[in-house]
Write a structure and sequence with these properties.
There is one protein chain. With 272 residues, the protein is mainly alpha-helical. The protein folds into four domains: 65 residues, no CATH class; 33 residues; 100 residues, Tetratricopeptide repeat domain (Serine Threonine Protein Phosphatase 5, Tetratricopeptide repeat); 36 residues. It contains 17 helices and no strands. Helix 1 runs antiparallel to helix 4 and helix 10 packs antiparallel against helix 11. The longest helix has 20 residues. It is rod-shaped. The N and C termini lie far apart (111 Å). The relative contact order is 0.04. About 8% of the residues have low confidence.
Length: 272
C-alpha cells in the first residue's frame, strides 16, 4: 500500500477539501462521500476542508503515520516488538523462578473452593435466581409491606427452604398485625436453622408479635410451635362469675332450698 504524505493531504484539503479529496486520499472513502454530499446540499464543507488542511500541516509526522499509514506491515512490526519485549522478560532466570514460586503458591487444592466460599456462591446464586426475594426486600425497606408480602410468598414458591424468606415474612406479617402468620413463619425459620434469637427478641418489625399473650410460651418452646400454645381467655371475669353462681346453686340444693329439677334448670340457663 502506498504511503500517504501529510503535506499532500493538506494541499488536497485546501484545493478540493469541499468535495472530500483529502479524505479519499487518506483512505476515508465514506467521509469523503459525506463531504461531497454536504457541499452539494449546503455548501459549508468548504470551511471543513480548510480546517482539515490546517490540521494536517500542524500535525506531527508520527501522529499522521499512526492514523493514516497503518499498513499491515506497521501492525506486524508493533506486534513483533511487543512479543520480543515479553519474551525477553520471561526468559530471564529471575522471572522464571518467580513464576514457578507464585504458581506453586496458587496451585488449586482438591476442593475447587473453600467451604465458606462455596456457600457464599450458592447463596448469591440462590438470591440471583429468585427475583421475588430481591423485590420483596426492596419493598419492605420502602415500607410497602403488603406488596412485600406478596413477593415473599412468591419467593417461597421458588425456594420453600430459604429460611431468610420465612424470617422476612414473619417480620412483614407482624408489621401488618397478623400475629398467627408471623408466629408460623418465624417458627419455620428457626426450624430450618435460624439461630439469631436476639434478633427475634429485639427486631423492631417483630414488636407486635412480642406483645401477644402467647409470646412467652412461644419463647419457652424455643421459638417453635411444636407445643400447642393455649389461646388466652378473653373474658376471665365472666368465667369467675359463672363459677360463683354455680357454687351458690349447689349450696341451695344441698340445704334443700331448691329441688334437683330446679337446680338443673338454673344450671342450664347459666351455661347458655
Amino acid at each position: 500500500m502506498r504511503r500517504k504524505d501529510k503535506n499532500a493531504a493538506a494541499i488536497l484539503a485546501f484545493l478540493g477539501g469541499f468535495i472530500g479529496l483529502h479524505r479519499f486520499y487518506v483512505g476515508q472513502i465514506g467521509l469523503g462521500i459525506v463531504y461531497s454530499m454536504l457541499f452539494f446540499a449546503f455548501g459549508f464543507s468548504i470551511i471543513l476542508g480548510i480546517l482539515d488542511g490546517i490540521i494536517f500541516l500542524t500535525m506531527d509526522d508520527e501522529v499522521f503515520d499512526a492514523k493514516y499509514n497503518r499498513t499491515r506491515q506497521y501492525h506486524r512490526e508493533r506486534y513483533d516488538r511487543g512479543r520480543r519485549r515479553d519474551t525477553d522478560f520471561d526468559r530471564s532466570p529471575q522471572n522464571r523462578r518467580s513464576y514457578r514460586r507464585d504458581r506453586s503458591r496458587t496451585r488449586p487444592s482438591s476442593a475447587p473452593f473453600p467451604a465458606k466460599q462455596r456457600r457464599t456462591r450458592r447463596s448469591s446464586k440462590r438470591l440471583k435466581n429468585n427475583p421475588f426475594k430481591q423485590a420483596g426486600i426492596k419493598k419492605f425497606k420502602e415500607f410497602d409491606i403488603e406488596a412485600a408480602i406478596k413477593d415473599f410468598e412468591q419467593a417461597l414458591k421458588v425456594d420453600p427452604n430459604d429460611l431468610t424468606i420465612h424470617f422476612n415474612l414473619g417480620c412483614a406479617y407482624s408489621q401488618t398485625e397478623q400475629a398467627e402468620k408471623a408466629f408460623y413463619h418465624i417458627a419455620r425459620a428457626v426450624e430450618m436453622g435460624f439461630n439469631d434469637f436476639s434478633r427475634i427478641d429485639d427486631h423492631d418489625a417483630l414488636a407486635y408479635m412480642r406483645i401477644q399473650p402467647q409470646w412467652e410460651q412461644f419463647k419457652e418452646n424455643g421459638y417453635t410451635l411444636n407445643k400447642k400454645i393455649a389461646a388466652p381467655k378473653e373474658n376471665l371475669l365472666d368465667d369467675d362469675l359463672l363459677l360463683q353462681q354455680l357454687k351458690k346453686l349447689n349450696e341451695l340444693k344441698d340445704k334443700g332450698l331448691i329441688t334437683e329439677r330446679e337446680f338443673l334448670e338454673q344450671k342450664t340457663k347459666l351455661s347458655k
